[in-house]
Amino acid sequence: MKYLAVAAVLLACLITPIHQATAQSTGGQSSTWKLRKQANAGVVRIVSGGMHSTSFQMASELSSLVDGTEGLRLLSLMGEGSLQNVADMLYLKGVDLAIVQTDVLDYMKKQRVHGGIERRVRYIAKLFNEEVHILARAPFKSLKQLAGRKVSIGPQTDGSYVTSSLLLNSLNIPIKPIFQEPDTALEMLKAGQIDAMIYVEGKPLNLFKRIRPADKLRFIPVPLSDAVQNTYLPSTLTSEDYPNLIPKGKSVSTLAVGNALMAFNWKTDTSRYQNVAKFIDAFFKKFPKLQEKPYHSKWSEVNLAAHIPGWNRVQAVDAVLASTAIGSGHDCPEPALRVAFQRFFTEVNVVPAAGTITPQQAENLFQDFQRWLKKNPQ
68: buried, middle or exposed (CB in 10 Å: 19+, 13-18, 0-12)? Predict the structure, then answer.
């Protein structure tokens, strides 16, 4: 009997820790699950460009802008170019937003890449313009001289590849395409292994700060042909943008293409849509801060109310636009804004005839008005 009592005590001592350990383990799992749920609540992921891209810098600035908004966290992901960004938004788990060139969007719709893409994605806003940079060895002074030459046009997942292909085809200039990342392409160009590289990015590019006079490289001008005037805008690269490549006071004509902030077309009753809507609200309300230093100068080109022809906007944007003063960067009532717009037309002496201005030209004109308004506050 004595031994049975001792055995019972020993058994109780052995069993008690097991129950305690099980309870502690269950509590730990519950705690971990709660932390995981909290960490993922309100998270929105945006994919943009590569390391040297303007879009990656601006996506990072967007994350900084909305940081601190209750129940919202924007995670910026480095992407592999506009074509891949769309694929990531459509198929990669957890990606809600992407920065994409507008010519790439139209290309994908026309070529029926990712069938029904116009129904599967929507735009939040038209962002900044990116310039076409065609950098070549010194002997080459025009695009026609690049016919039959080795030209890097970027990886086939990148927007530079699409833009380069569309432009060169429209001008009937056949090349020997090389599909290299811009870093590698620049080194190959310096070494004489290729004759030129085409890189579509917002100026000024930090990548080209590596170039020295001894490299003997130059920018080639890009003409605006009739075939692409509805897709691209005229632009310039100046000595202020690239003092090591363009003589002081000089400029090189080129083209620019718009960028859009796109969103997966979530159903409005889903938590993912609600997260995106929360981001839109924070982005639009805090947007004026982005047009101040130290944020990227390209934010000054952005008009959040601008339309992107052929594409539908996220529903949540309309509600925010209706309640937020967006566009001029000034607290300017509508009647005063109309007076300012009339003054602008008078001073620049540009009054297009009805029906003769394209949507792209209208957008460009509005951006000119925004810049004028900043210099002439009402």
Answer: exposed
